[in-house]
Write a structure and sequence with these properties.
Elements (H helix, E strand, L loop, with lengths): L4 E5 L9 E4 L10 H7 L5 E5 L14 H14 L5 E6 L1 H13 L4 E7 L21 H25 L7 H12 L3 H11 L15 E6 L7 H10 L3 E6 L6 H4 L1 H14 L10
Parallel strand pairs: 2-3, 2-4, 4-5, 5-6, 6-7
Antiparallel strand pairs: 1-3
């Protein structure tokens, strides 16, 4: 039985990929409600609460690696093969960790939603967060998560969308984020900022869509371009009116992109290079 709390919709169909939706930091699987509502008629849709978040909480060690292992365990237990993984922000790190630790035999395709393979910046890497977060600044932020999370949540919510995002989206995100455990959030943030998947990117052989928010406040277009140049089979999909959360800000277009995967069966080689 999965150690991750799971939200499910739809049903599995032979020859049709299962959609697995992996949320971002300080969020939970419920942030994928528009996808679960829209795509349940096509296939089974699963949105776990990742470690340290939602109803999973500390049932799984709050780390990227433990999240990847729990996801691999779920896919084995339920004999999920040919899944389409959607990794939004932190969720992409979990997806990359899954590939690094367990291979990609059960993955048909990967959608990386507005994310870089390394979050922190340093003299040799300037494609982390746009605010220039580096090691020393991150140490300060880590302490603030535990002691000041209610004060940090509003800014975190705003930066998750375009500056022009609808107020109801930002209000929803802030309300849900405020309910997260500061202690567990800090543990997951520590883990995610230790990750560096730059070396893994050229070894990924499944088709990849880099779903970039054209108005992202967190990552630059260059982060997606860097990945596309090194992936074997990739394309960049730009959601011009979105910030860091295209699946919420342009849900219809994002859902149609995912529906295309499902209808096509995510056949290897099905994604043209940009």
């Amino acid at each position: 039985m999965s150690r991750l709390h799971l939200r499910r919709a739809g049903r599995r169909r032979p020859g049709t990929p299962v959609l697995i939706l992996l949320h971002g930091w300080s969020c939970h699987g419920g942030f994928f409600a528009p996808q679960m509502d829209a795509l349940a008629d096509l296939t089974e849709v699963i949105a776990p609460d990742l470690p340290g978040h939602g109803k999973t909480g500390d049932a799984v060690t709050p780390s990227i690696e433990a999240g990847a292992d729990a996801l691999a365990e779920l896919m084995r237990e339920e004999e999920i093969a040919g899944a389409v993984l959607v990794g939004w922000s932190m969720g992409a790190l979990v997806a990359w960790s899954l590939i690094a630790r367990h291979g990609n035999d059960r993955i048909a395709a990967l959608v990386v939603e507005d994310m870089a393979p390394r979050v922190l910046n340093d003299p040799d890497w300037r494609l982390g967060t746009l605010n220039g977060l580096d090691g020393p600044r991150n140490a300060v932020f880590l302490k603030a998560i535990e002691s000041q999370w209610p004060l940090l949540a509003p800014a975190t919510a705003r930066r998750s969308f375009a500056a022009s995002a609808r107020k109801e989206l930002v209000d929803f995100a802030e309300r849900e984020m405020r309910g997260a455990s500061p202690k567990l959030l800090a543990a997951m943030w520590r883990s995610l900022t230790l990750q560096d998947f730059r070396g893994l990117i050229p070894r990924i052989t499944v088709p990849v869509v880099l779903a970039r928010g054209g108005l992202s406040q967190l990552y630059s277009p260059a982060a997606a371009a860097w990945q596309a140049a090194r992936l074997a089979d990739a394309r960049i999909e730009v959601f011009a009116r979105s910030g860091h959360s295209p699946h919420l800000e342009e849900a219809s277009a994002f859902n149609e992109m995912l529906a295309g995967f499902v209808r096509a069966g995510s056949a290897p080689g099905g994604l043209p290079r940009p």
